[in-house]
Every structure is written in C-alpha cells, then in structure tokens.
Amino acid sequence: MPELGKYAVEVLSAYAASLALLAVLILLTLRRGRAARADLRRAEAEGNSDA
Amino acid sequence: MTALLIRDLRLAMRAGGGFGLALAFFLIVVVLIPFSVGPEASLLSVIAPGVLWLGALLSCLLSLDRLLAIDFEDGTLDVLATAPLPLEAALSIKALAHWLTTGLPLVLAAPVLGVLLNLPGQGYLWLVASLALGTPALSVIGTFGAALTVGIKRGGLLLSLLVLPLYIPTLIFGAEVARRGAQGTDATTPLLMLAGITLATIALLPFASASVLRRGLR
Amino acid sequence: MSIWTYANPVKFLALSTRVQPWLWAAASIAIGVGLVWGFFGTPDDFRQGSTVKIIYLHVPSALMAINAWFMMLVTSLIWLIRRHHVSALAAKAAAPVGVVMTLIALVTGAIWGQPMWGTWWAWDPRLTSFLILFLFYLGYIALWEAIEDPDTAADLTSILCLVGSVFAVLSRYAVQFWNQGLHQGTSVPVATGGRTVADVFWYPLLLSMIGFALLFVALVFYRTGTEIRIRRAAALRARAGRGL
Question: Does B215 touch chain C (CB under 8 A)?
Fold first, then answer.
C-alpha cells in the first residue's frame, strides 16, 4: 500500500466509486446479454416445434 | 399557409387551447420566487432577469405537447404530411402559431412581472428585446421535440427531458443579455449570439422536425 | 472485403464472437496494469499530493464519454444513410456505456475538486459541459425506451443524436462565454501534439486510456450482440404469431 498522505480518503473513494460503477455496468451488460441469448434459444425452439 | 396559420391560432384561442395557461403559469412561477428566496428587494432585483427568462422558458415548455398531439389524434397530421404544402413549411407555420399564442404574450407580460421582482429600470428594454429575440427559437426547438414524441403515449415528461437540454444555449445567451442590460453593461455580444441561434434554428430545425415527423408517422 | 460486410448481423456476430475474448483480455490487462502502476508505482505530485492518482480514472473516462457520443453520431449517420441495422443497434448499445463514463468523470472530478479547489462542484465550463452531455445521454436513452417500433426508434434517436450534437457543441461555447473556468487546460492536447503531464504520470495514464478505450469497444461489441439477439427473437416470434 503506497503512502497516500492526507488525501487517502479522496483517492481511495475515487477508485472505489469508479470501479463500482464499471462493475455495475459490466454486470448489467452481462445479465442482459445472457437473458437475450436464452430468450433467442427459446424463440428458435418454439419456431422449430411449430414447423 | 395563411389558412393553416389562422386555423392553428383559432384552435389555440378556443377554450382548452391553452392560450391563457402559459401566461398564468408564468405569473405563478414569478409569484412563487419571492416565497422561496425571501422578499428582499435587492436580492430580487439581482435575480430578476434570470428568473424571468427561466419562467418564460418553462411556460413555453408547458404548451409544447399540445403543439402536435391534437392534430395527431384527429388525423390532421396525416393530411398535412401528404398535402402539397411541404411538411417543413407546415411545421414552421405551427411553430409560428405557437410563438404568437405563447411566446409573444410572454414577451409582453415579462415587463409587468419585472415590476414584481424589482427589476432595475434600465433592464426592461433589454429584457423585452432578449425575450422577443429568443422565444422564437424556443418555439422552433419545441416543435422539434414535439415531433419526436408525437406518437408516444404520455410523452409530456419525455418531451421536457429532450427539449430542456436543447434550450441551454438560448437560455444562456438570452439571460446574459437581460442580466447585462439590468446591470447597465454592454450586452451587444450575447444579443448577437442570441439572434444567431434564433435565425439558425428557424432556418435549419424545421427540416429535422419534418424528417422526424415523416418517419414517425410511417 | 470492406467494412460493410459486417453490416450483416450474422457476419457481425461471428466477428464479434471471434475478437471479443482478445478485446476483454487486452482491456483488463491495460486497465489493470495502468491503474496498478498509477496507484502503486507513481510518485505524488508536489502540489496535488496523492490526489494526482485520480487522473488515471478521470482523464480516460472523460475521453471515452466524449468519444462514445462521437461514435453514436457516426453510427447514427450510417444508419440514416445506409440503413444498416447493426449500426443503429451499436449506437443504442454505446449510450449506457457513455453515461457511465460521464458519471465516472463527474464523480472522480468532484472527489478531486473537493481538496484541490475546495469545492465539490463549480460551474466551470468543462464541468458544466459534462453535466450537459450527461443530460443529452439521458434524453437519448429515454427516447429509445419510449418508442415501440424498433426502426422508428432508430430513426428518431439518430436524428436526435445529430441535432443534439450540434446543440451540445453550441452549449459548450455558450457555457465558455457564460463563465470563464477554473479547470486546468487539457492534459493531452491532441491538436498540438504536446502534453502537459510529466513522463512518470504519462505512461500509466496512456495505458489506462488505451484500456478504457478497449473496454468501451468490448462492451459495445457485446451489447450490440445482445441487441441483435433481442431483435431476432422478436422477429421469430412475430413470424410464428402470423402463422407462417
């Protein structure tokens, strides 16, 4: 851990907030992507069973 | 074109057309300001130009969703889209009608409300000039926003979200003119910028609005 | 073979699946190394103290916030002119990433501003412009959400993006006129080719900027793929519903 001096709170909170925001973005992206994949598979299956 | 203008003006004047509503809203906003910041005359005279500009802008926003929605519901818009008159022209006329029924009354009412807010004497001319120059831009930009949201149910809130950021440059220069005028400093530069924005939006934005409306109606 | 090959959704998905692992890996490495190097391996600034370390987050995210909008502008134009669905969906996919980048830039800026300028927020032209950019992103996303027909939504949001770009630039100059700022000049002036950052800070910053850019590309690839799949599922269902 480097010596952050009197600004330790600021620096750490900036990193924490940014990484948290990025993590939320990536998680939401992945979740939506998985749901879309699953839904497409279902839609394709429905189409095949009808045919 | 004149027929369309007269028709729009008549519709707006009729009860429920929202003609007096914007004015009443402007009055209420201005009356509420001293309640929220205190009755000190010196403070009010400092913020008066900005408050009057913001009040006029919000009042303008209020009547935008009627601009095209009524015509959309009764099918007039489809007629206009297929009429020989270019849709760009029709939308410019509609913006003009909106300005005549909303913008112009606001411009005329602003000096009266300026008295309530203790606006310095030298500021009145600049306030009226800046509003007269700036409100046409608000109507034209608002027509673009109305065209974007016309097919959307309960699009009023979305309309505000879309239009307000587009109002920022107009507000900045308009309020700057009024503020400098009230302080007695030279307001030529922002006045020219404001005029530039208004002329550019009047010249260009109807094309965007018409293109949006054609795609939206399809 | 031209770039328009990838306007075909199937080809696009194939390409995107092929390059994505590399993109994600490269982005993680660049951001990871850049941030760790910046955080642990660089000295404090003699005036800013350790808060200088925030630059490794602030500058790259601000850069990508603007570039994301620029990318949306280009893809919107491509959609309006050549009507490639992938292009419109890529613009849709980029917008939320741009929002998050803008938010990171604003938040890190505020955290840095508190000890350095003595205030979280100042109505400085750069800060204000970013806030305005944030509002434009919100309006753009809200319009996408509000319109049901996907092609109409793509049309209208594209035009909004074009008009919004003009007004965003206009706001930028209006804001500059309205208030002279306290924000320092750009750290990486591309136009002049120079830079105002010392080498020790520059290399990790450069790495972090590359990392953020790669992350943006990876996210847009992934999200565009998601949008394509959603559209295809809807199309399949519509066809089944019509009894074909």
Answer: yes
Domain count, chain C: 1
Q: Is residue C143 part of a domain?
A: yes
Average pLDDT in chain C:
86
CA dist B126 and B189 (Å) reads 13
Does residue C1 form part of some domain? Answer: no
User: Which chains share 3+ C-beta pairs under 8 angstroms with A?
Assistant: C
Q: What pLDDT is recorded for position C175? A: 85
**Considering the domain boundaries, does residue C204 fall inside one?**
yes
Q: Going by C-beta distance under 8 Å and a sequence separation of 6 or more, which residues neighbour residue B97?
A: B5, B8, B9, B12
Nearest C-alpha in C relative to A43: C233
Interchain CB contact of C136 with B (< 8 Å):
yes
Q: What is the pLDDT of residues B132-165, one digit of tens each?
A: 999 999 999 999 999 999 888 777 889 999 999 9
Q: C20-47 burial, b for 16+ CB within 10 Å, e for fewer?
A: eeebbebbeebbeebbebbbeebebeee
Both tokens assigned to C199: 């080498």
Instruction: Read off the tokens for B179.
Output: 């503020």
Alpha helices for C42-149 (secondary structure H): 55-82, 85-117, 125-146
ipTM value, please give it. 0.86
pLDDT digits (tens, 9 = 90+) for C52-98: 888 889 999 999 999 999 999 999 999 999 888 899 999 999 999 99
What token pair was written down for B65? 């969703």
